[in-house]
Amino acid sequence: MRLAGIITEYDPFHAGHAWQLRRARELGAQVIAVCMSEDLTQRGSAALLPPAVRAAAALDAGADLVIGLPNPCAVQSAEGFAAAGVAALSALPGLDSLVFGAETPDTDALMETARVLCSPEFDRTVKQLAGQGMAFAAARAAAAGSLHPCAREILAHPNNNLGVEYCKAILRQGSSLVPVPVQRTGAQHGQQTPGEEGFASASYLRGLWRRQGVQALAPYVPAAALERYQKAAAQGQDLDGRAFSVAVLSRLRAMDPARLAAARGAAEGLEHRLAAAVRCAPDLESLYAAMKTKRYAHARLRRYALCAALGYGPDLPQTPPYLHVLAANRAGLSLLKGAALPADTSLAALEKKSEAARQMARAHAAGADLAALCRRIPGPMGSSYTQKPCLITGGSGNNF
């Protein structure tokens, strides 16, 4: 491994993420490129902090290049999220490895499970089990386990699941990236207490910030990141969860079932459940609870509601048509030379590259504008076009 990539959200960047960057260096990575979700996240919400803050924190901790995963690409299932990230990193010439955390850091086992999930037999078995009323996640694990002995156990862990999706994307896209799983340490995904090593999950830190303020994160984030977070908090750039809830609900209440049915993620009459729930739900959590069924996971409902609110439909590109540079040093900028996708720090320049780029940039900006409105001190529209990249270089110019 010489040139490594990481797909992530850094919501927020914490000590466990810094450890992963150090571990990649120990395994031989000379240059590290990160593909990071920008304003919106895979769980169907807005990020705690703006992308510029999180990207700069990653650069401080050892990343060389941070490119943004456009908002429509981030608000997808784990499969879509992984495919979009792999496509973006695969566009960087010379990048040879994809580093990610896993409870089972066994490349062969993860790749074999991915091959099972790519097989026609798997799809048929999942449909059969789901048709019998089994929830999708359970049907997926059962189907995989019936086709390969270790697959069920592999898929029983959240980071393994995402790792398998990365492997699937590599196989389906014919990417030259080699999976490099590293042992997941500290707190588990979503764990609401710090881990034994002092690491804490991002969800725990978001809750801690909400309850006690930014300073409470001090034991769990790098000092440089904490300094950036304190500055962001002083400027009111952290997410106001209640404002986000009201903003999304107000949009949904103005939509009829036909518009809800046109959103990405609508299926099997789900738009009618959303239309009924939104009539009386006082907040988003109540909305999700009213929509919940055995068939649909909570995360899927969150993504569907957000996609509906933003008008994200199935016609949007599913993978990035460009590379939006958020932060870089000299070594990171060198990775962009000869990239298979247009690369720039300017979203305005990128949206002119193709029709797909225009569609993606406009949809991305809509998500950024929603997130900006929901900061503790609301920001203006157009921030995705005006935000400044964090560049540590003596050169000039934004074209690669």
UniProtKB/TrEMBL annotation:
Pfam families: HIGH_NTase1. Keywords: ATP-binding, Cytoplasm, Ligase, Nucleotide-binding, RNA-binding, Transferase, tRNA processing, tRNA-binding. Signal peptide: none annotated. InterPro entries: Cyt_trans-like (IPR004821), Rossmann-like_a/b/a_fold (IPR014729), tRNA(Met)_cyd_acetate_ligase (IPR008513). Its EC number is 6.3.4.-. ATP binds at residues 7-20, 101, 159, 184. GO terms for biological process: tRNA modification. GO terms for cellular component: cytoplasm. One of its GO terms (molecular function) is transferase activity. It is found in: Cytoplasm. It is an enzyme of class 6 (ligase). It catalyses: cytidine(34) in elongator tRNA(Met) + acetate + ATP = N(4)-acetylcytidine(34) in elongator tRNA(Met) + AMP + diphosphate. Catalyzes the formation of N(4)-acetylcytidine (ac(4)C) at the wobble position of elongator tRNA(Met), using acetate and ATP as substrates. First activates an acetate ion to form acetyladenylate (Ac-AMP) and then transfers the acetyl group to tRNA to form ac(4)C34. NCBIfam families: cyt_tran_rel. Belongs to the TmcAL family. This is tRNA(Met) cytidine acetate ligase. It comes from Allofournierella massiliensis.
